[in-house]
Fold these 3 entries.
Entry 1:
Amino acid sequence: MNNTFRFTAALLTLMVTTPVPATGQPLSSPAVLRSSTGGPDQPIPEETISQNPPLSFWRPVRGRARAAMLCIHGLGLHRGTFAQFATAMANRDVAVYAVDVRGFGTWYQNGQPKLDFPASLLDVTKTLKDIRAQYPDAPIFLLGESMGGAVALQAAAQNADMVAGLISSVPSNDRFGGLGGDLHVTLRILAGGFKERFDVGSHVVQYATAKQDLRDLWKNDPRGRNNFSPAELMTFQSFMKQNFDVAKQVKQLPVLIIQGARDKLVHPSGTWDVWEHLATPNLDIALSSNAEHLIFEYGQFSSDDLRFVSNWIDKRLAKEIAEDVKLATVKPGTSVNQPEHPSDVIPASATSATSNGADKLAITYWIELMRDGKRFRCNNKIAFKSGDEIRLHVRANVDGFAYILLKAGTTGKHAVLFPDDQTGRFNRIGAQHDIALPTKSWLRFDNNPGQERVSVIFSRRPLDPSVQNSSLLTAFVSPDRTGAKDLVPTRMELSWGDPNPVIMPSSMSNNTALASAQGGEQGLETNLVKVSFANPEGVLSVDVALDHN
């Protein structure tokens, strides 16, 4: 038996998730949401405050802004598509602005259809300065969707000193169905030349949503734009391709990347690629389990989407307050950015206690199995076969770091499977986030049957997994369905769910929300293996035996 797994690069179509499991608001009437005070949100009108660039404003309901936000729309849309989202945020004391990208909205209506992204980035910079002048004490967040997500990303890289955080929804040009592809553009050039415009909007809308009411609203929006020339599409593509290089320039800014699980327009793998190019350590990625391409525009966000984004902003605000206090009380001669004991540093988002107030360190995991072209959700209480590919989905009750080791094979050798250059280096897990490990590849069973043992290690702090630590308390989960061969040390608890594989619902096939989604989909909470350790500051280690027949 080969004592290691073969790593096989696979197209990553799955995303790290957070539980945001509800449908978007109906289009027939304005969304009625609940404010932080428990009552319905007050309607807030869209105010036009500038025509150069065209800018809208939603005033905070209580007048005072604890934060400000600048929103940037997607291809063919306009600043007004954020009206419902802006109303919801303004009811949460956030001053919301939205700008028209050049060539769209008011620009297009006024006979200025030219797509000009460099000028649009200057517009964003100017607007950020105006917001800072209006709200000098309010941290400013940039939010963009699709094309707007890319504009927001590049604007954030250029204006890191003015921005407290970036929320970028599907900032990728990696589209399903060849949308925006070079061949599609080439055929149009041959048919009508570079400048002749054709209806791109209807094609985009068809992929972006399955909701007929949203399709009708989108295609018939008097402030929207559907027609583009091949030259304009090439300008758009060229701009979107800059995302990877620009992402490397974002080195410290907090960033949240979001994708809809039911997005049939943009590949999740493209969104993931942008996320992996970001240089900042302060980044999160989330999957809205029932959302399509649009999340923040046309009121497509759910109450859980709104809650998640609000909480993410709250955490950034709390951290800014903490940093202000830290700077005010730091000892003379001590660098704030260079701790005296780097090994004691906990990730910025980590807390000193478990997220649910418990006194235990706990993880759950399940196995995603790719077999004969189908995906299954299972645990290790089944037999695997040659050619199977797997990933482990891990979720913890606190922030920390995850590792996967090959614990034992026929020769008894040890190997670090993840993190690794081939399998992915980013191994930080946010509390209650489901993350698929390895992040960049799958583990493949070769043609040598036997039993493989892998060790899943979770720690509050970074560690060196290559150093064998015999003092670690380790639970052993056997392939035996009776549990008779499971070994659980004192102070640790182990439980596992139904061992029968569950085929992953086709509607959820392009995401990893299965472990945390709350949508009533059959099998979403099956197959979980749960392990806890009565030491919230310790290291949790689980040996998983995998039978290969």
Entry 2:
Amino acid sequence: MSEVFVNGQFAGTVEDPREFMEKVRSERRKGGVSQIVNVHWFEPLDRVMVECGRGRVRRPLVVVKDGIPLLTEKHIKQLQKDEISWNDVVAQGVIEYLDAGEEENCLIAFSESELTAQHTHLEISPLVMLGLCTSLVPYGDYIQSARLIIGARNLKQSIGFYASNFPVRMDMDVNILHTAQAPIVQSIMHDLSDYNAHPSGQNIVVAVMSFKGYNIEDAVILNKGSIERGFARSTYFRPAVAEELRYSGGLMDEVSIPQKEAKGYKSERDYRLLEDDGIVFPEAAIKEEDVVIGKTSPPRFLSSLEEYSLASNIRRESSLALKHGEQGVVDFVLVTENEEGNKLVQVRLRDQRIPEIGDKFTSRHGQKGITGLIVQETDMPFTASGIIPDLIFTPHGIPSRMTISHLIELVGGKTGALAGRLIDGTTFDAEPEEALRKELKRLGFRENGTETMYNGMTGEQYEAKIFVGTMYYLKLKHMVANKIHSRARGPIQLLTRQPTEGRAKEGGLRLGEMEKDTFVAHGASLLLKERFDSDRTIVPVCEGCGIIAIHDAIKNKRYCPICGDNVEVSDIEVSYAFKLILDEFKSLGIYPKLMLKNKY
């Protein structure tokens, strides 16, 4: 007897679990049992598990009987003509949904040609094992699995035409590629997802070769001529938002040009771009620290005395200015109201981004790289037919990563560009590589995709044949303009007196344990004295009790809080963070005694 569990709860027993399972399945296919019921037999424990609860991942498969799929050509034609729907096919028992449990008792064929009498189900298409982004990668069955995942991730980070109504949207941190194109090498998912309406890359000529060592370690080399013709040019948008908040006591913020009496008034130069309503005008070129929206707020603390004095009328400056390192052009100004009916001002800034050294590019196969050099068009290598590549890709990125699909796309893109057609690169069902090579040969090129190339600077012919083709390349949102950061002196935190953190706050660049080791290994350990003094401070210490003494600057006198006046006090150099932890120990009632002795 086998135990039966329904949604994990014991329901009864059956004599023959196989017969019970077959009965449930046949009833489900006829419509006698709900479509959401799944059943499987767990042989080691001799338990039949019936599941119909929520939260299970279920997937559709074609039912197979005696080695023949129930989905016929007639069904497919009816579906294409919209005579029947997907739900009708499921209701007829031709297609059924299985969960992870029931799949254990099934034998699923990958394709129709593999079917035998033992098979119970057939995949609708092997492509369904991949998600939307992953199935956009062409020739995905010719690539190492980890790289396929990276390729899908990179597609999500690429800059493209994300929405057709972008001129009227106020999105945070978005990019638009100026001349986005649809790829030459496509998959079926490009049609199904209407990819032409929102492309995110460009078809470019790629040569696989080394060039002066500037494309070492995955870097790529760009042709300056291609950039000047508009390759990978994009615009970066970000909004600046300010609203008139309402405070208790009927006081409100006010969007306007702050008066000179306002507390925290900047300088007239900072407000020069504001119009009479306190908002910047469209198409104004603005740089860091320029005010975009002028705003004043009521004073923070109203004491009983101030209410009757003139001081209560002094407002606080709370304008919105550009942060450190930001710049752009005012693209769009929107004045509206929020849910509470308060005035809301949104200003969208745009900044044109031209590819530069440090920008990130990738193919759809996880072959990502940073721009290492931008070369004058006259110095770029060229083919015998006069084609100059837009991008030079390093050959060392292929052997260890096994992204053969990257190379096939180069040949496919070249064939498609010359033949003037799109190439089908759908995973598991693509145009075969042999057919592409034959077509390339018919078009007058070498079938292996290589060409004779010449040195752009000397005009000499390269001895090696260079692999050249057309490829869909993506520009990623990781641009050096958003990440570059340097600092000499700048703001510090109030508590620790150490530099602030992060690029937006003009923070310091942290030197950690490993960076310290590199200096020591170089024999430059004295440099660490200068590196680690961001919070250097001089504190007076009592020689008697070892507690930090007090320096009275007004009386120009030092004394110890414990020993009093007549004691020797010495100045020592410590990190402020150390002085802070001593104070914290004192607050816990712990006595941190400093034992001083001479350096020499």
Entry 3:
Amino acid sequence: MPSQQPNVNFIWDILDKVLHLTFKRNELGDVLFPFIVLRRMDCILAPYNAEVNKTYLAFKDKLSTDKLHPILRKAAHNNTFYNTSNFTLETLLDDAQNIDINFRMYLNGFSHDIQEIFGYFQLDKTIQKLNRHGLLYRLIEEICKLDLSPEAVDNHDMGSFFEEIIRLANESSNETAGEHFTPRDAIRLMSAVLFEPDKEQLAHEGIIRTIYDPTCGTGGMVNIGRNYILEQVCKDTAKPTIKTYGQELNEVAFAIAKSEALITGSEADNIRLGNSLTEDRFEGKRFHYMMANPPYGITWKIEQDYVLNESLNPNGRFTAGTPRVSDGQLLFLQHMLSKMEPNGSKIGVVTNGSPLFSGSAGSGESNIRRWIIENDWLDCIIALPKDLFYNTGIATYIWILTNNKPAQRRGKVQLIDASTFCIPAKKSLGSKRNDIRPEHIEHVLKLYTEYQENEFCKIFPNTFFGAYELTIEQPQRKDGKVVMKAGRPQPDSKKRDTETVALNCDIQKYFTEEVLPNIDPESWIDYTKTRMQYAINFTSYFHKEEKTESAEAIRERIIGINPETGMTRQQQIQDLLAQIFD
């Protein structure tokens, strides 16, 4: 029987029948996620429970836990998890009076890593609340109506099913959804630009490609990226093996991401808990693709000492510079760049506008941008529509970076203005009021691949984004004479000023012709104070000049001249009255 993704409408059935008087809609995910994971594992283990129990009883008093674990895994048909209790979710229903005690025995029968995940889910707190309201039995009863066996739902469809549940749960809790959930339309747009140009390299059976997210949340970005490759890019061709990796700081989001890996047959150890900035759980690992939506405008003060110390290490991740402590987006970007494969990697990362232009010449932000652009890693920046994310309506951008640009793109940066490529959402969810449709994604992909300037696409050389900040000194004067010291004119600090000039500018000519005529003729440039600034003032490059209406046209519009008769509105009224009373 062919696999088919289950209908997620069961969520609303459970909410109506069991949970609606006890739990708020924004608590729905916290309650259901662990029970769906349990049901999937329960269905997977059903054919092997008897063998696992028999093996456990035979060896539990003879072997240490670490030696018993691989034997029990083998008994569970080499699954990464097993349960040594005498219960399944369905047999728990045979004893309603002792549902609480038996359910806890059932949970304690799982292998250690599974119990650890449920600890991160804070399942014990949920169980207590369910028990207080007499709902644990009813919830298990409803969950058991789902057939999540591998025969009914294969790993791929289980992943899609779980992702849909995550989406619905996050939309029900849209005040915090943006912390761990990036809208699918934004991820699909990023996926199209990252993966579609690599179709020839990807469409080979047997090759392995990796996707990594250092702020993976519930894992949606890497999972949608993987599915995009398999279902879109390689739909009608040979398919590669895609391995996904992620690290997450939030324990509940981590538990969801790791649970999905477990119940879909992925490598659960590739999802790891921790702060990517201070505890790189994939140290030394390199990836083919990286995707992320790091938090906007979130302080890194807690990580400050660690980051600043690593920035002093020539081989560290943050040697290019550190941004202001109020926003760590560029730290995550540097972290991702440190994990590029020497033979070529591609990165897609969502930011707000701040990393494009914040910071003056010589600042950490400017120095990081300079490092990225001078290394020719910045390939493209795409301006997204506003009101696209659940917890913010501000302007956002997708950065595409690579250390293996095609020849025609080398030494250049492409900018795509997709800020109008959207339609109003049928239903607003938090701040999300716009949706990106497939046709919009196709339009962006066409702009990216055709690589030609037009209304929505600009292409600039790398040097375009850099500039020198020159310090202009004017001399101190006393009684009209320049004050000298040790044979040198002394600068007047009150008259000190700066000028910003392009990298390809003839500085001395500019100073002589544009600056010097307007200041003290004995002024000079203090080259020791020269600093370089890199900034991407995205919106200014797509600014459209509005046609100014002429004064005559404005006058004619105000007084109402008829272009056919040349008469003003008042003259027309007088002429009409004359005709009536003549």
